[in-house]
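Holo prediction. Input below; ligand is NAI.
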Amino acid sequence: MALNLDAVGKPIGPISKDYTWKDVILYALGIGAGYSEPEFTYEKNLKVIPTFSIASIFEFLTHIGINANVNLAGILHGEQDLIFHRPIPTEGKLVTAGKITHMYDKGKGKGALVIGESDTFDANGKKLFTSVLTIFARLDGGFGGEAAPKDTLEFPKKKPDFEVEAHPNQNQPLLYRLSGDLFALHVDQDFAKMAGFEKPIMHGLCTYGYACRALMQNLTPGAPEKVRRLKCRFSKPLYPGDPIKTQIWKIEEGKVLWKTINAKTGEEVITNGLFEYGDMPKDEIRFDGRVAIVTGAGGGLGRIYALDLARRGAKVVVNDLGGTRDGSGKDKGPADKVVEEIKALGGEAVASYDNVATPEGGEAIVKTAIDAFGKVDILINNAGILRDKSFLKMEPENWQAVLNVHLNGAYNVTRPAFKVMRENGYGRILMTTSAAGLYGNFGQTNYSSAKMGLVGFMNTLKLEGAKYDIKVNTIAPIAASRLTEDVMPPELFEKMKPEFVSPMVLYLCSEKCKVNGNIYNAGMGFFNRAAVITGPGVVIGDGVNPPSVEDVVGRFDKVASLKGGKLYFELNEQVGDVMNAFSAPAKPQAEAGAKLTSTADVFKAMPAAFNPEAAKGVDVVFQYHISGANGGDWHCSVKDGSCTIEPGVHSKPTCTLKMADKDFLDMINGVLPAMQAYTSGKLKIEGDVMKSQLIGKLFKL
Ligand code: NAI
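Structure of the complex:
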């Protein structure tokens, strides 16, 4: 029996569970609550213990075991992480969906880890909690897979701030299992012996529930809705009846580390515990389950982005080459230090020391994310260097070095990341520009060019990613860092903490980000948008004969005016405006004469409107897909000066024109100019767009 490695990434669920207040109380009793906690054990004013979440995901857990083909005799719950987004209602429906995200190999005889991640929603589709669970498959190691990344929290050396003792009953698993975990190991004497235990053992998740109660008693008394996250590793089995002690260390406001020990033997039963609590902020932006790469995150702005992302739940690849300000040298220290900082906060991070300036470096950075966390959701292209010189002193070496890190660096990392994001149907990419690029700064021709190049990069990538929910935006930060220490007065330097830039960066990298292709300045608490604005312009001359220089100079005020200027989202919009400036204005319906009133009539009329003269040497097939009640499919083949029109779909059209029936008739009847139809999106053309321009010459309707 071998693990089914193909199960990774395959969706599991949705799995529904209906429950009532009785299930909620049964669970509370199963984890030792009693008369002293009436809020969890009496239906009057009932509240739900957050770890009740587990009761709704047993079936999901079972699917993970089955899909992964784990040897059931060796299965143990390895780790559990629950992140709460909303309080759990006292009754209703819970809907869970997720997938196996990783399978890690601890080696032959040492077991394997199968990780499953799921989100659970209420009946109205509101996300209640996220679960990341690890099955420790003791008998499935040695399949040749990768080792799991290390994730061990550092506990303070001092005595715990709180200790809570509890005495699970001899029969506790018998009660706990009624909440859904019916695994024989906790009830069947023979099965337990076969699995190597002297008798049935406590469910790890039952002890986890005891720990949750202990944490709540001290940190969120009477307010389970304030529990935000509960994470731990199950390290030793516990026999029913053994007393336990949960030890708690405060590390910062709203965050503690904890472990549960067997109070009889002193052995650690649950370790690596993290508990986060506090008010559930409305509309909080979180990154739970998201994987972020931040380049140049060993210091300055990137370090703050990485820390802030991790604080809000993201797993972070902290990339930094660790060179000097001008890009020379390298050092693993800066990236390692930031990873340590994130781990000390209870977050997850790995270091990457690769150089963004080479394609191999870019690939390696993305591979680090995939190896450690299985995907990439967020990429912040932040790494940067400076080599300032006035233009004539700017030798090719200094020009190229700066372009290599900023512009080529963004290309090198974004390309492999974009591939992963496209496959996953989600991504947030951030470019880092600068006021020097947007507006100019003496002595920085290299830097300004690279930084403005990134804006062009964004402008096109935003279009290519849109279909896959990949949004690409650009930040223009202003902050105190080693890049700006000698260009800013000390009093300003103090006020310009990178922390003031980070909120905008996090928004642009979040699921809630609505914008795509925008540039924002951010610094010191001031935020605004920068954009390329195009003036309305003017036609000079008749569009047939080129105007003279003097003609242009004569109308220069109009040419240069930005009054009534426009923001374009893409090239076609701008080209459309240029074409519209020449095309005859749309005719009112009455004037146009509305000759044709049905789509079928248009295609009937086309052979008569065909102009064989214009068709010499032309070999094309136009496929029309007209939607709406009056629509249908027709194709029109033009070859060797002749034309045939037939209903239906052609197997190899040169281009396909898609339009709603009403718009199509308006276009044919001259009410809607073709270019306007195209630039407004009413006419969509797939395939060879250039060939579609022949239609106007081939048919005179
Ligand atoms: P910083 O020097 O503190 O951080 C940049 C980091 O990038 C450094 O830790 C460096 O080791 C790393 N790095 C450099 N080359 C690398 C490479 N080839 N591969 C991997 N890592 C590399 O500077 P700061 O101010 O935090 O800059 C961050 C970004 O923000 C840069 O792109 C910079 O151009 C941009 N920026 C900063 C402004 C500011 O006011 N601080 C203003 C406008 C833009």
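The domain at 5-141+150-277 is CATH 3.10.129.10 (Thiol Ester Dehydrase; Chain A). That is the main takeaway for now.
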